[in-house]
Amino acid sequence: MVKFGFGAVILLGSVLGSALAHYSGPFLFWGVSDLKGVQVSALEGLDDKFLRDLYSNAAAVVVFLRNGTSQLNDDNFPSFRRIIEKHEYVYSAQEELSSNPLDYNVNAEIINLVGSPTQQDVELAALYRDSTANYGERKVLGILASRWDEPHHRLYKREAKPDESATSTTPAGPTEEPEMDDAIYNVAGKAIIYITSAPILSVNSTDEENIVLNKHTVATYDSRESESKLIVTFKAEDTTKITLKFRFEMDAGYWSMPKVDVFLIDTKSKDASKTTDVTLEINEADAPYAPMGFSYSCSRQLIYRNGSTILTLENIQVQPSLNGSTKFGSTWDCVGFTTAPIWSGLFVTSFMAVGMALAICAILDIKPPNRFESRTGKQLTFTVQE
C-alpha cells in the first residue's frame, strides 16, 4: 500500500470528442471494510475474484474518472484527502481492471470529473458524500481512475525533478473537456437528446433570473438492463457547474424518461457540502415514452420539477438504446393521432351525417298515388275513414 500523495507516474491523453470513454490505471479503491489488510502485487495488481466479490458486496460502486494531468496531492485534492483518511484504501498501479464494476453491481455508476483540480476535488467529495448518504457509511466503494478516449495510445511521463522542469519538452495534455454551445447531447450508438433551445434551470422559483444551460461538455451514457442514464455536464458560469442525468426506464417493450437528476456544485467553495442534489420528476401523463427502437418528439414544453427547482425542456426529440445506430428511429409524437380540432371536426361531421340520414329516410317514406285522373276517364274518389 502506498501513501496518498502518489505522483511517480502521470498519464497523459487527448480528448478526441468521442463520448465512448474508457478508463485505465493506476487505481485507488476506498470506502469499504473489505479493503482492510489487502496486499497488492506490483506486477499483477488485484486478483479478479477479489474484485468481483468487492463489487458485489458493496451497496454501490462509484467510479470517478480524471482526465487532467495535475498530480493527485494534498494541495490539489484536500477534500478527497479527508475522505481517504476516514476509510480503508488500496492503491494499485495496474493498467486495467479485469472485471467491470457495472457487471456486478446494479448501483454502479461512472462519473467524469472535468475542470481544474479544485473543481474535480469538490465534485468528487460532494458526489461521494451523496452516495454514502443514500446507501450508508462504509458501504459505498469508491474507485478513482484515469479517463482515456483511446486506451491504446498512452504516454507515460516521469515526474520532472526541480532541475529538469525548465528543460522538459513533454507537452501537457488538456485539463478540461471541450465545451459545445449546441443543445444536442449525443453518445454515438447509445442515446441522443436534441432540443431546439437550451434547457432552462430554475433553482429557486422566486428568482427572476433562470440559468440557461447553453454550454456543455461531452455527454456520457450509463446503460443498465432496466434503467440507463445520459449524463451531461454544463458550465453555467465561472463558479457553477451543473450535471444533468436524464434517467431512462425500460419496461415491457417501452422506454420512458420520467426523472432528471440535477447536481449543482459551486466549484470555488472548499466546502463539499455546499452542493445541490435533487431529483426532478414530470407528470406521469407528460413523461416522454415510446416503444423500443422509436424516438419521442414533442413540440410543447416539458417541465420537470421538485419543489422550487424546475427544469424546462422546449421542443425535444429523444431516444435511448440506439443499438449502434447514429440516427433517430421512427418518431412517436406526444400530440398523438387525434387532437381537439380533429375531434371537433369529427363530431360536427357525424352530427350532419345523422341529420342527412334522417332526411333521406323521410323522403324515402313518402308514398305517392298510383292512379291519376284524366279528362276522358272516370273521376277518382277516395274514402277517408276517421
Automatic annotation (TrEMBL):
V-type proton ATPase subunit S1 luminal domain location: 193-320
UniProt domain V-type proton ATPase subunit S1/VOA1 transmembrane: residue ranges: 336-373
Membrane topology per record: Single-pass membrane protein
Basic and acidic residues bias: start-end ranges: 155-164
Keyword Cytoplasm attributed: no
Region (Disordered): 155-179
Transmembrane segments: 342-366
Sorted UniProt keywords: Membrane, Transmembrane, Transmembrane helix
The name this protein goes by in its record: Uncharacterized protein
Originating species: Aedes albopictus (Asian tiger mosquito)
